[in-house]
Amino acid sequence: MSTARKHTALPKAEILIEALPWLTRHNGKIVVIKFGGNAMIDQGLKAAFAQDVVFLRQAGLRPVVVHGGGPQINAQLDKQGLISEFKAGLRVTTPEAMDVVRMVLAGQVQRELVGLLNEHGPLAVGMTGEDAHTITATKHSPEIDGELVDIGRVGEITAIDTGAIEALLADGRIPVISSIARSADDHHVYNVNADTAAAALAAALGAETLMVLTDVEGLYADWPSSDEVISRLTVSELEKLLPELSSGMVPKMEGCLHAVRGGVSTARVIDGRVQHSILLEIFTDEGIGTMVVPDAQGGEVK
Ligand SMILES: Nc1ncnc2c1ncn2[C@@H]1O[C@H](COP(=O)(O)OP(=O)(O)O)[C@@H](O)[C@H]1O
Ligand SMILES: CC(=O)N[C@@H](CCC(=O)OP(=O)(O)O)C(=O)O
């Protein structure tokens, strides 16, 4: 090799070596990555997301993707002249709306992500929570102002069967999961918030990390008046903060709490609008978003 080529290759070798302790520590670990519909802004970002996920897989981790699609569902409901309404942060899902949710999540968003991942090899396999009893739910009626409210076909998760996901992981695949559940009570399918589904899957799979990609930098301490991001907090600190949070952040942070309480080592909310945010989060010591850790590891609310 010429001296000039050695010179340009050396910084690249140093970058790879810097990642070695991290790669060694996380080898074989499951990482659940939730890609929010609001973070799927353009083709470039989606392609970079796919590259990051494939990179993790090729580096020896076992990524599982759970995707959202709220804005994409809104657009399709709009086209069909159906109303989009949210209560307690959840979509009021009539039987007609459920058909649209299922079509958009499983037939559109999931297919697109599977396609992007599979540009890198025969890796991704798409499924919904309906498949192989992966997610079972019962009808969810949230309490609003002290009253139980009927919001239609919205599911509350009652059981997770990780068998199909584990079989795919054992086969070296990347499962890409839509947040739709089957019901054990009736023959209907139910709409589950994708953050909630990702967190429940992370806990059930014994994942090392849950990463939630969204359209903000992380959890803001005093939203919307300030954009100061809380970089790290413990589950107890998060629990105290939960009642103050508003709509979009509620299922995300409840999910992070559930995941870490369920044994996941860290749950992170990161900015999916930043290209390669997954790799940035992993390869920078302090991370780029908000990290939720168990109480034993201590935190700081900034
Ligand atoms: N404390 C907070 N910190 C950050 N974002 C917040 C906070 N409270 C509410 N939000 C809102 O939550 C939104 C993210 O949730 P959501 O719209 O459901 O995204 P996604 O499609 O990624 O699930 C942000 O865009 C912001 O408007
Ligand atoms: C019950 C409920 O609200 N389900 C969500 C499922 C999709 C989702 O969660 O998408 P994001 O992650 O992009 O918000 C919905 O219908 O919008």
Bound molecules: adenosine-5'-diphosphate, N-acetyl-L-glutamyl 5-phosphate
Count of strand segments? 16
Strand content: 15-25%
Q: Look at the structure and give the mean pLDDT.
A: 93
Backbone CA Rg: 19 Å
Instruction: Estimate the global geometry from the Cα principal axes.
Output: globular
Describe what you observe in this structure.
This protein has 302 residues and is α/β, with parallel strands linked by helices. It is 39% helix and 22% strand. It is built from ten helices and 16 strands. The protein has helices spanning 3-18, 20-26, 43-58, 70-79, 95-117, 163-170, 194-205, 235-241, 249-261, 277-283, and strands at residues 30-35, 62-67, 86-87, 90-91, 124-128, 135-139, 143-144, 147-148, 155-160, 174-178, 180-183, 189-191, 209-214, 232-234, 266-271, 290-293. An eight-stranded mixed sheet has the order 5-10-2-1-13-15-16-14, with helices on both faces. A four-stranded mixed sheet has the order 9-6-11-12. α4 packs across α5 and α7 (194-205) runs parallel beside α9 (249-261). The longest helix has 23 residues, at 95-117. It is globular. The model has no long low-confidence stretch (mean pLDDT 93). Bound molecules: adenosine-5'-diphosphate and N-acetyl-L-glutamyl 5-phosphate. N-acetyl-L-glutamyl 5-phosphate is lined by residues 36-38, 68-70, 73, 90-91, 101, 154, 179, 191-195. One of its GO terms (molecular function) is acetylglutamate kinase activity. It comes from Streptomyces xanthophaeus. The record marks 34, 252 as: Transition state stabilizer. InterPro entries: AceGlu_kinase-like_sf (IPR036393), AcgluKinase_fam (IPR004662), ArgB (IPR037528), Asp/Glu/Uridylate_kinase (IPR001048), Glu/AcGlu_kinase (IPR001057), NAGK-C (IPR041727). Catalyzes the ATP-dependent phosphorylation of N-acetyl-L-glutamate.
